[in-house]
Design goal:
Chain lengths: 444, 148
C-alpha cells in the first residue's frame, strides 16, 4: 500500500512514463536557455520568492471517521536566472491524512505548474517550457510542454502551445498530445479580436477539436463588450456563445449585462468526469440553455456599494428559472468591511425554489483580524427532510509580521447530510524571499 | 472550420520563429504592477487608468467576466497575480477549496461557500457549464466518491 502511494506521488512529478518525461523537461529547459542567446543579455541578481501555506483541519464524517488532513501548498519562483528575462515558477501541494483516510487516499499531491520562462522586454514575447498553464481563447489547459506568444506587427499577435495534457490518472482518457494557438489583432484601447484553435488526441484517435472567436471592444469610454464563441468540430456544433456588456461608471453607477447560450451535446462531449458524461443520464444531451443576466451597482460613497442583479435561465427542456436579489457591501481599505445580501431562486422544480441570505463582516485590530460569515438557504420544500440549511464560520487571524500570518477558524453548519457539522481549520502562511548577489523585489 | 487546424500548426511554427525575430517594437507589459494591490477594494483599475486597463476593474460581476480577460490577455493578469491565484480554483486535482483556504476574505465571491454539498446539486442543475470549467476533465476521485 505504501509503495503504491509513493509510486503515484512520483508519477505526479515525473509523468506517467517517469524518466522520459523528466528527460523531455530537461531538454526543453536546455532549449529555452539556448534561445536566450538570440536576445541581448541583461545581467541581474538571482532572487528566490516563495510562499508556504500550511493547513490542518479536523472534521468528523457521518460514519464517525475522524478526518485530519494536513496540507502544504508551496509556491516557489526564481527570478533573474542569469538574465532578468529568465525566471522559474512552480506551485504544488501535498496532503497527508493524520487521522482516518479520506476519499480512499491517505497521501495525495499535485504539481500545479513548474516551468522556465523567458519574457522579453519588447513585443510581449513569452516562452514557457515545462508544466505550463495555457489560457488562450478556447484553451484553459494545463500542459506538459511548450507555450509561446508574441506581438508581431501592425497590431497582430500570435500564441501557440503543444505538449501532453495534464490529467488525473482516473480520467479513463489518456490524451497523448494537445496543441493549438490563437491569432489576435489589436487596436490599443479600442478592440482586440482573436481566433483560436485546440486539438487533443487520445492515442491514435481525436478526442477534442475546438475553435473559437473572441472579442474585446471599447468603442467609446465607459462601454466595453467582451466575449467568446466556441465551436466543437467533433460534434459539428456550437458549444457556447458568451458575451458581456459593461457600461459605466456613470456618476457611481455601473451596469453589467450577460448573454450566454450553451448546447449540452457540444459543450460536454469531452468531459471525462463521470457526472458530466452525457451517457450517464444526469445531463440531457438535447438540453440547451440561454442565460440573460443584468447587474446594476451603485457606489453610494467611497465605502458603500449597493447592487441588484437578475439572471434568467431559459432551458429548452427543463423550463425556466430566475435568480435575482441584491447586496449591500461596505469596505474600508486596511480596516475591514461587511456585506449583506438576499437572493431568490425561482425555478420550475422544487429544488430550484429557495431564498438565500448572507451576512459577513471582517475587522482588523492591529495585528489581529476577525471574520464572521453566515450563509442561510431556505428551500420552499424539504430536501432530504430539511427545509432550512445554514453555515456559519468564525475566523481569527494574527499577523506575526508582514510575511507570516496564522488563521484559526471554526465552521458550524446544519444541512441534509449533517444535523450538526463542526469543522476546525488552522492555517499558517509564510512568505519568504532571498537574493543571491542583489536585492529582493518582494513577494507578489 | 477545418482550415484552422492548418492555420494553427503554421502559427505554432511562426510564433516560435517570431518570438526570436519579432519586430513589433511594442514595449512589453511590466512584470509587476508598480503599486502593490493588497485588497479587493483597491483593484479598481479605472481609479488610475483611463485606457484599456480601466476595463479590468474588479467590481460587480468580474468573477463571471474574468474568463474573457484571461483568455485574451493573461499576461495582464500576471502583472498583479501569481499563477497560483489561478490554480487556487483551476486546479487539476481537488485539494482544498478556496472558500476553505480563505475564510478571512469573505468579500471575495468564492463559489463553494457554506453547505456546498447540498448546494452543488442545485448549482449543477442550473448551469453545469460553470462546474465543467474546473471539474469536467479532472478532480475525478472526489466526484467519484458519490457519482460512480
Amino acid at each position: 500500500m505504501k509503495g503504491g502511494s509513493c509510486l503515484k506521488r512520483n508519477r505526479l512529478l515525473l509523468g506517467r512514463e517517469g524518466r522520459p518525461q523528466l528527460l523531455r523537461m530537461v531538454i526543453m529547459i536546455a532549449a529555452l536557455l539556448g534561445l536566450q542567446s538570440f536576445f541581448p543579455p541583461a545581467s541581474s541578481a538571482l532572487t528566490l520568492n516563495g510562499e508556504s501555506n500550511t493547513y490542518l483541519s479536523f472534521r468528523e464524517t457521518a460514519d464517525k471517521s475522524k478526518i485530519v488532513p494536513l496540507y502544504e501548498y508551496l509556491d516557489l519562483s526564481l527570478d533573474n536566472i542569469g538574465d532578468n528575462r529568465v525566471s522559474f515558477h512552480s506551485s504544488g501541494w501535498g496532503k497527508a491524512d493524520l487521522g482516518d483516510e479520506s476519499y480512499g487516499k491517505r497521501y495525495d499531491a499535485d504539481l500545479l505548474y513548474a516551468y522556465l520562462s523567458f519574457k522579453n522586454d519588447k513585443n510581449n514575447t513569452t516562452i514557457n517550457l515545462g508544466r505550463v498553464l495555457v489560457f488562450e481563447g478556447v484553451a484553459a489547459e494545463k500542459v506538459d510542454g511548450f507555450y509561446a506568444r508574441t506581438d508581431i506587427k501592425y497590431g497582430f499577435g500570435a500564441s501557440a502551445y503543444v505538449g501532453r495534457p495534464v490529467e488525473t490518472e482516473s480520467n479513463g482518457v489518456s490524451g497523448d498530445l494537445i496543441y493549438g494557438g490563437r491569432l489576435s489583432y489589436e487596436i490599443p484601447s479600442i478592440v482586440v479580436l482573436g481566433a483560436s484553435y485546440l486539438k487533443e488526441n487520445s492515442g491514435s484517435s481525436d478526442f477534442r477539436e475546438e475553435e473559437g472567436a473572441d472579442i474585446w471592444l471599447n468603442p467609446v469610454r465607459q462601454v466595453v463588450i467582451t466575449g467568446r464563441s466556441s465551436y466543437n468540430s467533433m460534434t459539428n456544433g456550437w458549444m457556447e456563445h458568451t458575451y458581456f456588456l459593461s457600461l459605466g461608471p456613470f456618476s457611481n453607477l455601473r451596469l453589467n449585462s450577460e448573454v450566454s447560450w450553451i448546447s449540452y451535446k457540444d459543450y460536454f462531449s469531452s468531459a471525462t468526469t463521470d457526472v458530466f458524461k452525457l451517457m450517464t443520464g444526469i445531463l440531457d444531451p438535447a438540453e440547451k440553455v440561454l442565460i440573460l443576466g443584468q447587474e446594476a451597482a451603485y457606489s453610494i460613497n467611497e465605502n458603500l456599494t449597493a447592487s441588484a442583479d437578475y439572471k434568467h435561465y431559459d432551458y429548452d427542456l427543463a423550463g425556466n428559472a430566475n435568480y435575482y436579489g441584491g447586496k449591500l457591501s461596505y469596505a474600508v481599505l486596511g480596516k475591514g468591511g461587511a456585506g449583506v445580501s438576499f437572493h431568490r431562486m425561482s425555478g420550475a422544480t422544487d429544488k430550484l425554489r429557495y431564498n438565500e441570505y448572507r451576512v459577513y463582516g471582517f475587522k482588523k485590530f492591529g495585528r489581529a483580524d476577525l471574520t464572521l460569515d453566515f450563509l442561510d438557504v431556505d428551500y420552499d420544500s424539504e430536501i432530504d427532510g430539511m427545509k432550512n440549511t445554514y453555515a456559519a464560520s468564525l475566523a481569527i487571524g494574527y499577523n506575526f509580521s508582514n510575511k507570516v500570518k496564522t488563521v484559526a477558524d471554526v465552521d458550524y453548519s446544519r444541512n441534509p447530510n449533517f444535523n450538526r457539522d463542526v469543522r476546525t481549520f488552522l492555517s499558517l502562511v509564510w512568505q519568504f524571499d532571498s537574493a543571491f548577489g542583489g536585492e529582493t523585489k518582494g513577494v507578489r | 472550420m477545418k482550415h484552422m487546424k492548418t492555420m494553427t500548426l503554421a502559427a505554432l511554427l511562426a510564433v516560435s520563429l517570431l518570438s526570436v525575430y519579432s519586430c513589433a517594437g511594442t514595449n512589453s507589459l511590466a512584470k509587476t504592477h508598480p503599486v502593490e494591490i493588497k485588497e479587493l477594494a483597491e483593484a479598481v483599475c479605472s481609479n488610475c487608468h483611463t485606457n484599456e486597463w480601466a476595463a479590468f476593474d474588479h467590481v460587480g460581476d468580474f468573477l463571471t467576466r474574468h474568463k474573457a480577460f484571461a483568455a485574451q490577455k493573461k499576461q495582464a493578469c500576471e502583472v498583479c497575480h501569481a499563477e497560483s491565484f489561478c490554480t487556487d480554483c483551476h486546479a487539476s486535482k481537488a485539494g482544498l477549496s478556496p472558500s476553505d483556504r480563505y475564510k478571512d476574505s469573505p468579500e471575495i465571491s468564492y463559489p463553494h461557500r457554506g453547505d456546498y454539498l447540498t448546494q452543488h446539486m442545485i448549482d449543477g442543475r442550473v448551469n453545469p457549464a460553470l462546474c465543467m470549467k474546473c471539474h469536467g476533465r479532472q478532480n475525478n476521485e472526489r466526484c467519484r466518491a458519490c457519482h460512480k
